[in-house]
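Q: Could you fold this chain for me?
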Amino acid sequence: MEPARRMSRDSLFGEQVIWSGRPKLVTVPPLFRVAAWVSAVIALTSTMSAVAVATVLHVSVGEMLLFSAWMATLAVGFWRIPLWWRSELEFAITDQNIIIRRGRYRRFIDRRSISFARIHWHRSHMGVGDLELVRAVPTGAMRRRLTIVLTGLSAPDRVWAFVRGLTPAAPAGDGHRLLAQRLDEGERVLWSSHPASTWKRWIPTHVRGVLSLLLGLCLVASAFFAASDAIRGLRSVLSAGLAPGSVSFIALVASLTLSVALLGAAAVGVVYSSLVKPARLARDTRYLITDRRVLIQKSTEELHLERERIVDVIDAPGQGGKKDLFLVLDGPKARAFAPSGAFGQQPDGGLQPVLKLVEDPDVVQRILKTPTPPSIGLAA
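A: Sure. Below is the predicted structure, expressed as structure tokens.
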């Protein structure tokens, strides 16, 4: 993705536009996608239940059908509204700001206040991804989330280079390549590693993870008991004389099956996200420290951090006698001089500026505390 030709100044700030673009790929966010599927399954389950009740008991099921229609409407809304909204987004990088606009809607962030960036590559379109720009903010009572996301970009790492005020390197834009193969021109790797492998990565280490795992196990038990009750109920219905091939019996079986399947899917999803996924991602995590940046790659997610933003490194005991290194961030218009640079978000809020289970922490601290040469990009 090449920078746009010099255009007239931005209508909001009157600044020169360096780059502009629009989403190449419009997708539904994962949360909305899950909500759409859940709403659709509930709508179908309610409809099947209404058919079974109407054909067996011969009572009015208008309220059940109305509820089904409402859930179906929600499913369509969860699926279509994000696509409609994202399809009209426009992005621009000016001399001082990054701007997202849609009609009269404007959202912007100062380029100098950006602490680090995350890139989320799409699994089925590795040349396309989302660029998330994060501003470090104080923790505690004043903690808040300051991010701006440019969705569906072609070659988001090239756009990040424009934000930094650099010319993108030739290999940029290919999500299949390792980070070490997509460095800036003249950038050198000083240290690379990955978290030490340990069986304890399969054990949740924070309260939220433990509670999520307990919730998942409760859902698994609930799905098992619900399936047992459904089987006993179907046997009772058959013994009462309901024909196995009748419309009411088929509707009843479909309704119970969808209900149990929804509960089971929720159980599997919660257990996977709280136990299996963190362990698998920990295995795929890679760390790079260059003469300019700290880079973290975890599956299809990347964190890009300028070393100039790091003002301190805090080490904490980790599993197996290893050390976790928390990078304290600070910068112009992004004051975060405290552990908030690393501790400011929840553990599932995406990649954080933290190097976990480092086997040679002294070497890493010595490298990071060595002054970096003056940057040729925006941070200078």
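A (continued): The CA atoms of residues 245 and 251 lie 10 Å apart.
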